[in-house]
Amino acid sequence: MPNPLDVIRTNIDRLLVEILPSVTILAACKGRSAAEVQVAYQTGLRCFGHNYVQEAQAIAPQLDFSAPWHMIGHLQRNKVGTAIELFDSIDTVDSLQLAQELEKRCANTERQMKVMIEVNSGREENKNGVLPEDAVALAEFIAQQPHLHLHGIMTMGPLLGDPENSRPYFVETRKVYEQIARLNLAGVNLRYLSMGMSDSYQVAIREGANMVRLGTVIFGERK
Ligand SMILES: *Cc1c(COP(=O)(O)O)cnc(C)c1O
């Protein structure tokens, strides 16, 4: 049996060859131990994401590196205070209320926070994210908040067997990105189009993603 940490090293070495440096690999760390996350950093990854505030809080003191951490899970309003202490970017802003709460908390603690808008590109009822047609209004609202800095657009898209089926949702999200970029909103500096996961990152990159969120292809199947 190969050492599980060596498997992670091999996976990352391969991904760093395959994926151009212009695309940021965000390591999706939900369910992973501090030791696994530590190896990901040692092997060269420089961007990390977590879905759960409490889990991220539990591993943070065991990590001896500093790198940007992104909140990629749905953020409940009662966790906003802890989240802005732990994360460098909140990638899942999907309502005026959440943006407002973030602004309030950041103002109270004199913190500046990078955020992304999460788009519900599949228009799924039970999914988080704003509908594509509501993203511009949310971007305009965020632009007016002195402590929030919009730097990207992210989407999950429906989970479909064949990654080819995700393509139209990636195309739609890219259009949202371009639409917001064209507005040239003061204080908004769009840089990241975050889409694609382990099964779909190749299609996402072809459709313009410059950030991919990878868990399984880095760390193996989640237990
Ligand atoms: C878990 C997760 C990922 C990574 O998923 P994999 O299929 O394991 O690569 C990416 N984005 C979000 C929002 C996730 O929750």
Q: Summary?
A:
The chain has 9 helices and 8 strands. It has 223 residues and is of the alpha/beta class. An 8-stranded parallel sheet has the order 7-6-5-4-3-2-1-8.
Describe the structure.
- It is a single chain.
- The chain is of the alpha/beta class and 223 residues long.
- Helix content is 39%, strand content 17%.
- The chain is built from nine helices and eight strands.
- Strand 1, helix 2 and strand 2 (48-50) form a beta-alpha-beta unit.
- Helix 1 crosses helix 2 (34-42).
- It is globular and about 55 Å long.
- The mean pLDDT is 96.
- It binds pyridoxal-5'-phosphate (PLP).
- Residues 28, 30, 51, 72-73, 156, 197-199, 213-216 line the site of pyridoxal-5'-phosphate.
Topology:
Blueprint: H1 4-18, E1 24-28, H2 34-42, E2 48-50, H3 53-59, E3 69-71, H4 80-86, E4 89-93, H5 96-108, E5 113-119, H6 135-143, E6 148-155, H7 167-183, E7 192-195, H8 201-206, E8 211-214, H9 216-219
Parallel strand pairs: 1-2, 1-8, 2-3, 3-4, 4-5, 5-6, 6-7
Helix pairs in contact: 1-2
Bound molecules: pyridoxal-5'-phosphate.
Descriptive keywords:
single chain; 223 residues; alpha/beta; 8-stranded parallel beta sheet; binds pyridoxal-5'-phosphate
Helix percentage: 25-40%
SSE succession: HEHEHEHEHEHEHEHEH
Count of helical stretches: 9
**Strand arrangement, major sheet:** 7-6-5-4-3-2-1-8
The fraction of residues assigned to DSSP E strands is: 15-25%
Q: What's the overall geometry?
A: globular
